[in-house]
Amino acid sequence: MELSKAYEPQKVEGRIYTLWEKSGFLNPDKLPGKRKKTYTIVIPPPNITGFLHMGHALNATCQDILIRWRRMQGYKTLWLPGTDHAGIATQNVVEKELKKEGKTRFDLGREEFIKRVWQWKEKYGDIILDQLKKMGCSCDWSRTRFTMDKDYVRAVEAAFQHYYDKGWIYKGKRVVNWCPRCQTSLSDLEIEYKEEKGNLWYIKYPVVKNSKSQAPNSKQIPYSKFQISNFITVATTRPETILGDRAVAVNPKDKRYKNLVGKTAVLPLVDRKLPIIADRLVDPEFGTGAVKITPAHDLNDYQISLRHGLPMIQVIDEQGKITKEAPLPYQGMRVFEARQKIVEDLKKLGLLEKTEEYLHQIPKCYRCGTTLELIPSEQWFLKMGELAKTAIEMVKSEKVRFQPKRWEKVYFDWLKNIQDWCISRQIWWGHKIPLKGVDDVLDTWFSSALWPFATLGWPKQTKDLKAFYPTDVLSTARDIINLWVTRMIFSGMEFMKKPPFKNVYIHATVLTKEGKRMSKSLGTGLDPLILCDKYGADATRFGIAWQIMGGQDIKFVEDNIVMGRKFCNKVWNATRFVLLQISNSKLQIPNKFQFTNSKLTVADKRILKALDKTIKAVNKDLEGFRFGQASRRLYGFFWHDFCDIYVEKSKIQSSKSKTEKENTQKILLYVLLNSLKLLHPFIPFVTEEIYQQLPIKNKKKCLMVEEWPK
RNA sequence: GGGCACUUAGCUCAGUGGCAGAGCGCUGCACUCACAUUGCAGAGGUCGCUGGUUCAAAUCCAGCAGUGCCCACCA
């Protein structure tokens, strides 16, 4: 047999992936041998709008290394793939398409629009899964799931019903984050804050003259029907919301305003009476120490309003426009427009004391970037009390372990201050809330929360569910610890009475060389498939794995992929050398014991010992999710111990006896074969290709199902 | 405002108490040799700064400076 002079991944990868698919070994039920213990990973389902980015590539590499390693160790391994319908994200993409045709989703109507989304899904939804194949991922494609499959819909309905029957789902009018563009409420976790320059406006509110007192300086002012005595100044970043004001609040300990508490202020432009109240939430250090209270459009103010029994007035609607509750001149104006006019009007009345520049965090929709409004709205909520308690307990008792451990803190901090989960969304693409007369759909994460067991057939008690639940590892990004991981944990406990996984591996974030976030919109993204084309999928995987050190973020440099490519070529060529040394007739793979009684040279003993040490160390590394250490160890062993030292020494044969020469040949083949096995989880294509071409007798059908070295 | 990380060679990073390391890049030499995607040799570092603990500190402790990320109701 003949290997080309250099390894050419383009000629190999497609063919080898087909070999794996045809072998059936991606499916745990078709793996050879008796396999009692299972090892399961469910993939974090990428959005159907998604394309593979470096984060996916890294996560896919980690998961595939683990799965291939365990598969070779004799586990019944399942890596279950799938995609998420990603409510808002997908709806937005399809809406953008419609926009090109000059249409909105309302032109089509709900039913027609959803049809459109399904068409889109059928056409593009699986692209990202094909990209995972290019990376060499050994998922069981026969079990691919989608969060809106018929069976999955049943799981979502069953889960909803369960919570409903328990009385944990309720309807409530709350001030929620609202995206005027997506026309839906959003949960706290779906907000992104962006720092923007704004102003802090200081506005003078007249104070009504106490009817009993005879203050000499009281007067009637032209713009108010009330007699006023003096003014109280409040500071605000959003003057347009004054239209919805219901009170002015100060801190109860603030001496400056002691006399004013209990009196009444007048809301400029509206001429509404506002009680002046005291509440501990008011920070006397900020602004003037007096704050306007707008219960309908601010979360703090809403809290305060509950304590003081203040009613809401909604002055901003779902479109982000001023409502009819406001005075006529402002009605129908967009928020920003109204802001400018109100500031002008206040200035004219001499009620604008001053304006300061102010840098603050503006809430944005994490899907479309539109500035969010806070508006009161009827929504469905899921009570979090018991569920949160269970979730905390699972991690505290170490039934679920975070890896690295420090991410526990993010998890606990969120759960300890948790609010009830707003599970309704006013979009069209998603799971309809299974109640009569409700058009809302469920938050995407409600269905994602069921992923580890709904994909295995729940609520039916399937064979798969019994065999593969709970899973072993969840490997995911840190930014969805609370959006997703937390919710899977309490859902798993609620419906399966067991946590959905034993380990949560929070992988590194891939940054640019400059330490910035990789993002498509900023043009700082890097397409892993381009790297695969340029250097090969193995090189890309190895280069990525090389950089995964202790969960530290990775400033990505291509240099490591170059290293990966060189390494694959080295493995290829070392094989060529070994094959030249051994005879052409098919050889039996030497077993370890054959060496123990033979006459071994110092070099022989050294390489065998080094191999042994490497096997043990790599196992330990992988058990601890230390992918970088494992790849460096394998690299060092193969390139230096094996190629530079042992192979080079083997070339000097003149002084050797016949036995020694035979030993050398056996050891070359033995070490090579074991190296291929050890390297296979990291660089599966090249090692499989070589294995397929090795002229040895007792071969398995694929290296993928060879026995892991012991 | 709170939290979590990070700072070591030109670049990207290992090393967590005992002679400063890797990959990439760079310099020189070597292609009838498995591999020039190679081999051999080499240059390159006050381990962010200041103190402390120790026989011994890149490593442990304290403080400072800088960078990044996350959370948060300061209007």
From TrEMBL:
Pfam families: Anticodon_1, tRNA-synt_1. Residues 604-710 form the Methionyl/Valyl/Leucyl/Isoleucyl-tRNA synthetase anticodon-binding domain. It is found in: Cytoplasm. Its EC number is 6.1.1.9. Keywords: Aminoacyl-tRNA synthetase, ATP-binding, Coiled coil, Cytoplasm, Ligase, Nucleotide-binding, Protein biosynthesis. One of its GO terms (biological process) is valyl-tRNA aminoacylation. One of its GO terms (cellular component) is cytosol. It catalyses: tRNA(Val) + L-valine + ATP = L-valyl-tRNA(Val) + AMP + diphosphate. GO terms for molecular function: aminoacyl-tRNA deacylase activity; ATP binding; valine-tRNA ligase activity. The keyword Ligase applies. Residues 16-435 form the Aminoacyl-tRNA synthetase class Ia domain. SUPFAM superfamilies: Anticodon-binding domain of a subclass of class I aminoacyl-tRNA synthetases, Nucleotidylyl transferase, ValRS/IleRS/LeuRS editing domain. The keyword Chaperone does not apply. Monomer. NCBIfam families: valS. PANTHER family: VALINE--TRNA LIGASE, CHLOROPLASTIC_MITOCHONDRIAL 2, VALYL-TRNA SYNTHETASES. Belongs to the class-I aminoacyl-tRNA synthetase family. This is Valine--tRNA ligase. It comes from Candidatus Nealsonbacteria bacterium CG_4_8_14_3_um_filter_40_11. The gene is valS.
